[in-house]
Specification:
Elements (H helix, E strand, L loop, with lengths): L2 E5 L3 H16 L4 E5 L3 H4 L13 H12 L4 E5 L11 E6 L7 E5 L8 E3 L3 H10 L4 E3 L5 H9 L5 E5 H7 L5 E4 L13 E6 L2 H7 L5 H17 L7 E6 L2 E7 L6 E7 L3 H14 L1 H10 L4
Parallel strand pairs: 1-2, 1-3, 6-7, 6-8
Antiparallel strand pairs: 3-10, 4-10, 5-8, 5-9, 11-12, 12-13
Helix pairs in contact: 8-9
Length: 293
């Protein structure tokens, strides 16, 4: 019986699921996709922090796994919350694609004044780079965001470069260096989560890339110690054990930045605790300004 692979219905989510299914097929594992609706897709006009953050995209798929509707699900790993339900495991972490953000623009770059993004991190980093910019909320799938820019609602928008690559889209703009515009933890990585069943785990683990898993686990350990989720402007990026992490004020005017070389999750947790300590005022301020507790 083929594995039932759950996915959201967006074009990007479908492309990611189809990539996983193709890779499983190459390993001799049969699989078929099952589309699951999520609250994050149906509330596209609401800022993410008001509907529960990126984890809202994962919850419905977790529930479908636990209910037995699907065997596994495909996610952008950056969307997976730190706290996971019992009975669900991350069994496959694919080799990482580009971790960078991509600035897509409809006007010459020197003429950009209005930029669309729903990410507090991207907002803060853009304002740090150019405080004169006007940053406006932007939700929806990749096609919707590009359409709104082309209609003139924004001069530019920021997307994950990996998403554009997976969709085969070539758009005017440039990649933002991840050493400067530090990405979200696990950005550019596809993960497979599944029911904690030895047979399903064994099959989906065939896609696991050990180097990417190690780097992303270090990023997640730092993220978990820092806390804040998508509410606090934070970037965490690890490559071959070298980590860059930063926390910014919502307006990008202040930041705390740390770098180091980390060998394992224990070292990452110590690093994350220190980062949280140094940036405690920025984290508290972000929660208060967004009306969160």
């Amino acid at each position: 019986m083929p594995l039932r692979i759950g996915t959201r219905g967006s074009t990007l989510a479908l492309a990611q699921a189809e990539k996983v299914i193709a890779l499983l097929t190459l390993q001799g594992v049969g699989a078929e996709k099952v589309i699951i609706a999520t609250h994050g897709d149906t509330a596209a006009g609401v800022p993410l922090h008001e509907i529960g953050g990126q984890g809202v995209f994962v919850r419905a798929l977790d529930e479908a796994i636990l209910a037995g509707t699907i065997d596994a699900a495909v996610h952008s790993m950056k969307d997976i919350p730190a706290k996971r339900p019992d009975g669900v495991v991350t069994s496959g972490v694919l080799a990482r694609d580009s971790p960078a953000d991509y600035l897509v623009h409809a006007v010459p770059e020197e003429s950009i004044r209005v930029v669309g993004t729903s990410s507090t991190r991207r907002r803060a980093q853009l304002l740090r780079d150019d405080p004169s910019l006007s940053i406006r909320q932007l939700r929806g799938n990749v096609d919707t965001r590009l359409r709104k820019m082309r209609e003139g609602q924004y001069d530019a928008i920021v997307l994950a470069e990996a998403g554009l690559q997976r969709l085969g889209l070539h758009v005017p703009g440039r990649s933002l260096p991840p050493e400067v515009f530090v990405p979200s933890p696990n950005q550019g990585t596809i993960a497979v989560v599944c029911r904690d069943d030895p047979v399903v785990v064994e099959r989906t683990a065939l896609l696991d890339d050990p180097c990417t898993r190690q780097d992303t686990l270090i990023e997640r350990a730092v993220m978990e110690e820092v806390g804040g989720g998508c509410f606090t402007p934070q970037g965490v990026y690890c490559r071959d054990g070298h980590i860059i992490a930063e926390i910014l004020s919502l307006d990008g005017a202040r930041q705390v930045r740390m770098e180091g070389d980390l060998a394992d999750a224990a070292a990452a947790r110590a690093f994350g605790k220190e980062l949280r300590k140094r940036a405690s005022d920025l984290i508290r301020e972000a929660y208060e300004r967004l009306g969160l507790k």
